[in-house]
Q: What sequence folds into this?
């Protein structure tokens, strides 16, 4: 897509927003606590994640719903999945999703197929699997006092995910199990983990950490949703107009997607996925209508603004509020940078793909360069962004390696090596 076409597309989208404002852009905080809580319950999912995705396989898996409240009042949903037939119990692992997804991303595929979802693969191996759901996603439960119509409900970015959501989920799992926790993050689930670990959070309760399609820097992303918006500062314009929620399921979100497909001459039934997540080698496109029922999910405009800020600044740092508020929050005119050299690496595993537009090789290499030595990594030349969570044969292609990393107490210092000249998967050195 050329620069002029991209600019025209963005302005068409902006004009559409001016004609029909999103319902979520009502400004003001509901001070009626009882009324706010009643409204919150209206937004609870009619069916929980367990009943929708796991109970159909009741004879094989046990699933329970949990909730936890963050320090700033969001009610997060978590689900615990165990196999009824696993021969060995291997301890808890928390799976944390990326932006515009929820915890259901880990269970979208049947456990009986070659593309069995990661949560089922791990449960079959004996892990005590926990699914996290970040604030405002489908299988979390609103806020103690705020409703979706309140501006403050959407006043967050991945800074808050790192400071509040991830610790809240991890400590709930730890308090229930009384064990250290393995962690698997995908996309923004890696970003929040890197931010939290760089500030010394979770060190006392985390065991091993596997980051799939890791994102810290994003200056080389090449997906239209973020790259185009960041270059044209569309994120700032939308925020200025008073829009706080972003969802591809709203009329305006659908309009944005349609414009991307039209201007890029894309088949939105298939190429829509490619335009946003890359050429996924192992994605079953025949299942797209099913996936589309549940994904994508809502996020805050502020969260996308933060990602666009990182793109323009070429840094991994906290949200930029402008000089005045930065001085109040950070005691500096500039946002505080997350120091990746402080992330513990002896129990860290990175897996990334050669065709991923959201975790581009240049950005991942910069992340690797700034981490301290000792981490392990696996390069999948044919993988794009979705292959890590809903790809065919994910057990053989990826999760056998993840589980080997979790279970091998002698692998400290062992690394995986890249073979950029081959299309075959990498092997252990």
A:
């Amino acid at each position: 897509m050329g620069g002029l076409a991209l600019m025209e597309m963005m302005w068409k989208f902006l004009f559409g927003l001016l004609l029909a404002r999103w319902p979520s852009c009502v400004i003001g905080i509901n001070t009626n606590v009882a009324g706010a809580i009643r409204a919150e319950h209206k937004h609870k999912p009619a069916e929980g994640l367990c009943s929708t995705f796991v109970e159909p396989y009741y004879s094989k898996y046990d699933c329970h719903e949990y909730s936890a409240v963050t320090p700033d009042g969001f009610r997060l949903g978590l689900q615990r999945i165990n196999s009824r037939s696993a021969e060995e119990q291997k301890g808890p692992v928390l799976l944390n999703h990326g932006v515009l997804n929820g915890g259901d991303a880990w269970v979208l595929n049947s456990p009986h197929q070659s593309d069995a979802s990661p949560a089922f693969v791990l449960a079959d191996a004996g892990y005590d699997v926990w699914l996290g759901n970040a604030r405002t996603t489908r299988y979390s439960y609103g806020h103690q006092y705020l409703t979706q119509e309140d501006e403050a409900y959407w006043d967050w970015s991945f800074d808050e995910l790192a400071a509040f959501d991830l610790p809240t989920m991890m400590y709930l799992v730890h308090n229930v199990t009384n064990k250290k926790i393995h962690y698997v993050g995908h996309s923004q689930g890696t970003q929040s983990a890197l931010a939290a670990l760089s500030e010394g959070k979770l060190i006392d309760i985390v065991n091993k950490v596997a980051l799939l399609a890791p994102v810290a820097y994003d200056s080389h992303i090449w997906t239209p949703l973020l790259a185009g918006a960041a270059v044209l500062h569309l994120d700032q314009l939308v925020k200025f107009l008073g829009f706080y929620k972003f969802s591809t399921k709203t009329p305006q979100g659908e309009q944005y997607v349609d414009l991307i497909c039209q201007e890029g001459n894309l088949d939105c039934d298939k190429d829509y996925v490619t335009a946003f997540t890359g050429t996924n080698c192992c994605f079953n496109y025949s299942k797209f209508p099913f996936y589309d029922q549940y994904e994508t999910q809502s996020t805050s405009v502020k969260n996308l603004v933060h990602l666009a800020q990182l793109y323009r600044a070429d840094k991994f740092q906290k949200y930029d509020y402008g000089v005045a508020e930065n001085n109040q929050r950070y005691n500096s005119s500039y946002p505080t940078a997350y120091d990746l050299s402080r992330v513990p690496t002896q129990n860290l595993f990175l897996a990334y793909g050669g065709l991923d537009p959201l975790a581009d090789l240049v950005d991942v290499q910069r992340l690797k360069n700034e981490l301290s030595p000792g981490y392990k990594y696996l390069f999948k030349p044919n993988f794009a962004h979705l292959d890590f969570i809903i790809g065919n044969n994910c057990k053989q292609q990826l999760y056998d390696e993840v589980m080997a990393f979790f279970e091998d107490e002698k692998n400290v210092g062992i690394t995986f090596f890249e073979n950029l000249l081959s299309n075959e998967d990498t092997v252990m050195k």
Observations:
- The mean pLDDT is 82.
- Residues 158-177 form the longest helix (20 residues).
- The beta strands are 61-69, 75-83, 92-96, 128-132, 181-186, 206-212, 245-246, 299-300, 348-353, 376-380.
- The CA atoms of residues 213 and 352 lie 5 Å apart.
